[in-house]
Amino acid sequence: MPEKVHVPKPGETFFCRACGHESLAKVKKVMDGWRCTGEVVLCAFCQAPVAPAKPPAASAASPDTGAADAAALRRLAALLDTEPAAAPRLADATRGHFCKDCRHFLRHPFYSRCLHHERNVEPMEDCADFDPRPEGTPPASAEPPTAATP
Hints:
four-stranded mixed sheet
């Protein structure tokens, strides 16, 4: 019968057979591209594997969780004899009521100003007096128009 080898836990001291020193165990993830395929216990000094690679623990966000959640939601809706509520949708997700998108916003290198309220503002502020800038029109700039030199 083969001898059972003690596999040290991460941070535990053990005698490394590869380098012959007392060392600490560390765990390194084995990656295949961006996917973790396993974990291996290594000697902290010589990086020799102490224990064979083991598959990673199943995470809560596995790829098939979404399908299982959808199926569970359908079963619950059938049990309650209702339809699942549709996800809320924003009226216009591309533009908010931010000062940077307002007709009265003045962009300047040193400050941003609201010409309607005549005060300095932050571009991402929200305003009750929002007036959308026409599509394709850049925000006003404080730079004077340059005249062509003859």
